[in-house]
Design brief:
The protein is an alpha/beta fold. It is built from 22 helices and 30 strands. About 30% of the residues lie in helices and about 20% in strands. Helix 3 packs across helix 10.
């Protein structure tokens, strides 16, 4: 029988260290006291694993699992924070994207497995190096998103098993020794603060790995089953479940078994889509466990939900114990108040609600109100202790707008990201302009978006907005009317044909989500380069120009600008043979995650400390680049300087006007100063002369280039001006109000 919820609190409250009373330093008086962030510490537990039976009747094993569990740590952290005055020093009800952007508007997105360090140096030690932060500050980078660095994977008995999804299958609040130690993490946060920067960590509100929490849930231990979407199947109906292969702890159920379990009333059945679909590997979102002996000696088999891989059981946000909510909030507070981060990325936070639909219809699992409510809780809690959040939510623009109203402060730009890749491939910005205008019409503030180049994932082109809720809406592209579903397929097919296969043999399709590639390998394929092993100096120069064009698109508009180490040093993809074991089950993203040496501290190494093969770098490490005024890093610095000096990041997008040349993109912004700023970009491989026209341009106003500080034109009576741009070039312009006309003096004076 499941023990009452109070028992776990009673057991773990005895382990809570005394929290010091937090006071305000008297040096802040008599002025208003500074809002201090509370502090808390998670448990520390070390034990050797004896060799005993690994089931619920082994009290030693159960206790060992309990001391590894995230839910236990969450309970301990919560008891230290409850009742503290410091928990009420920050407003939290409403997202504040501009405050988040002002705090850190340019981010470096790291990926621990691929970051090459000095020999003997940890990943966290490298990110806490003052020289790195000095370099970042010189370039204009104000934050590091570390990527997931806490323990991930699973537990088989006493043995830890590796991560199945790049450390996004969290099993502990402890830092994975592969990346460093907790004290190194805290030191990294301190060094960032010394350089006016901040550290952004990850939490995963949608799932965990199969760690101690999941193993305790299988054993029906206390509140732990309430963490997950898992259903106890009576032994009388085990015939509905597939057999688990030898050596495995679960098996994905077939569509037929899914239907049978739904008809028997156990599960809600199929959902709106199967992410990571792979025949014979993942055909549904449900898996069945092997038989488990629980803490009462009863054998149990469970069916559990996993939106992603089988090793990522989904968290239940509406269980009566609220165990899942407690676990996730505890993990967030640990990062912010124990480790010292300033912000958190919410991974896959759009899949937090699931509900049975009408007969024959898939279960409601995307855009569910519970997701919005859960995100509001997480976002509010983080703001309540002085941090901010961003979501990587690939849903419709409507859903992104809805979640941004009460939940996270910022959202990843899945809206226009496929659009600028499509523009580069086709040398036509029409689809990009369409997505920008749709976002404006729906009410998404560009300043609330994180505009990123490459991250650890694929080039995502699912175009969920057009493929799902708006699949029957009619849009126009290239002079042809098509519905959303047809538009989606057209864009996807265009990108697939241009970037993979014979046109881009070094890239790869990633299931139904997108294309595994680096920013550089997108550009080389768009340029028609089929062999990236023999790039000429001239080709590399062209790649750099196109890369900087994409930087300007993302940086010269309101919102956060983010780029990765793969972008900073210009890496190509890995040969598939180098990561064959990692890609064997269809996860082709590993080809775009090659190791890179950002600071040039380990020139002889061929793999990262985590074993990722080194990718080819076209630009070289940052210290070398900063010696060359024409390098990617130096020119990036100039772009970011203009962005910061003129406050483009906190501006407002006013207009995306029609253009006179198909490769031209124009974005008209109002800056916080009230001035009008215009970003003009040429996505074509040819020089163009075109007109820029917008009702927001005042006749007679001067047009000043913010990079050269020269006046390059004047707005005419039709609210337009002409501009010339070279291939893959762009610029930022300021519209200067015309000088007031002097009144003529009256006659006789």
């Amino acid at each position: 029988m499941t023990e009452p919820a109070e028992s776990i609190e009673e057991t773990e409250s005895s382990e809570v260290p005394e929290a010091p009373e937090i006071t305000f330093d008297e040096k802040f008086y008599p002025a208003r006291p500074k809002a201090l962030r509370p502090v808390a510490r998670r448990r520390q537990y070390f034990a050797n694993a004896p060799s005993l039976e690994l089931d619920g009747l082994n009290k030693t094993y159960v206790e060992w699992l309990r001391n590894q569990a995230m839910l236990g740590d969450a309970n301990v952290l919560a008891r230290q924070l409850s009742g503290q005055a410091s928990m009420w020093q920050h407003s939290y009800a409403h997202p504040n994207p501009r405050a988040a952007v002002e705090r850190a508007s340019v981010w470096f997105t790291a990926y621990p497995l691929s970051y090459m360090t000095t020999p003997g140096q940890s990943f966290l030690g490298a990110l806490g190096d003052p020289e790195l932060w000095k370099t970042f500050r010189e370039i204009g980078i104000r934050a590091i998103h570390t990527g997931p660095v806490k323990k991930a994977g699973g537990l088989q008995g006493w043995r830890e098993t590796p991560s199945v999804d790049g450390h996004f299958d969290r099993i502990s609040m402890a830092i994975d020794p592969l990346f460093g130690e907790e004290d190194e993490f805290r030191r990294m946060c301190e060094v960032a603060g010394e350089h006016d920067g901040t550290i952004i960590d990850d939490i995963v509100p949608g799932h965990t790995g199969k760690g101690a929490d999941f193993r305790l849930a299988e054993m029906n231990y206390r509140d732990y089953p309430g963490i997950y979407h898992m259903i106890d199947i009576p032994e009388s109906d085990w015939h509905l479940l597939p057999d688990v292969p030898p050596g495995e702890d679960s098996v994905n159920i077939s569509p037929d078994a899914e239907l049978a379990l739904q008809q028997a009333g156990y599960i809600i059945g199929r959902l709106q889509r199967v992410i990571f679909y792979e025949p014979g590997v993942k055909e549904t979102n449900w898996s069945a466990t092997r038989a488990i002996v629980d803490t009462t000696g009863q054998k149990r088999r469970w069916v559990y939900l996993h939106y992603f891989k089988a090793g990522q059981p989904s968290i239940n946000w509406l269980d009566p114990t609220f165990s899942g909510m407690r676990l996730v909030v505890g993990d967030a507070l640990h990062s912010l108040l124990d480790l010292g981060t300033g912000a958190l990325r919410l991974d896959a936070n759009g899949f937090l609600g699931v509900e049975k639909s009408a007969e024959e219809q898939p279960g409601w699992s995307e855009g569910h109100p519970l997701s919005e409510a859960a995100n509001q809780l997480i976002g509010s809690m983080v703001r309540k202790v002085g941090g901010f959040t961003f979501q990587e939510l690939n849903l419709t623009i409507d859903d992104i707008k809805a979640t941004s109203e009460t939940g996270p402060d910022l959202s990843y730009d899945f809206i226009t990201r496929p659009g600028y890749h499509y523009a580069l491939v086709t040398q036509d910005t029409e689809f990009l302009r369409l997505t920008l205008r749709l976002a404006m019409e729906i009410g998404v503030d560009q300043a609330s978006l994180v505009h990123a180049l490459q991250n650890h994932d694929e080039l995502t082109y699912e175009l969920v907005h057009f493929a799902t809720r708006h699949k029957d809406d009619v849009f126009e592209l290239a002079g042809t009317e098509m519905n959303g579903a047809e538009l989606t397929e057209h864009v996807q097919e265009t990108l697939r044909n241009a970037l993979t296969g014979e046109n881009g043999p070094y890239n790869a399709v990633f299931t139904t989500n997108g294309i595994a590639c680096t920013t550089v390998s997108v550009i080389t394929a768009a340029l028609g380069i089929k062999d990236i092993s023999a790039l000429t100096a001239e080709q590399i120069d062209t790649v750099r120009e196109a890369h900087l064009l994409l930087v300007m698109y993302n940086a010269l508009q309101p919102g956060v600008f983010a780029l990765s180490g793969w972008d900073m040093v210009g890496t190509t993809t890995l040969d598939r043979a180098q990561v064959q074991e990692l890609t064997s089950q269809g996860d082709t993203r590993w080809i775009n995650r090659g190791a890179h040496d950002l600071m040039g501290t380990n020139a002889e190494a061929t793999v990262s400390a985590s074993g990722m093969p080194r990718a080819r770098s076209l630009y070289g490490p940052l210290p070398e680049q900063l010696k060359d005024e024409g390098s990617f890093a130096r020119r990036l610095q100039k772009i970011l300087k203009v962005r910061e000096e003129w406050g483009i990041a906190t501006g407002v997008l006013l207009d995306v006007p029609q253009v006179s040349q198909r490769g031209l993109l124009v974005m008209v912004h109002r800056l916080a100063s009230g001035q009008i700023q215009v970003t003009v970009l040429n996505f074509s491989g040819e020089s163009i002369t075109g007109s820029v026209n917008s009702s927001h341009l005042e006749a007679g106003a001067g047009v000043r280039d913010l990079f050269t500080d020269e006046t390059v034109g004047q707005v005419d009576d039709l609210h337009s001006f002409f501009i010339e741009l070279g291939a893959y070039q762009g610029t930022a312009l300021l519209i200067e109000e015309p000088a007031p006309e002097e009144e003529e003096a009256p006659e006789g004076t």
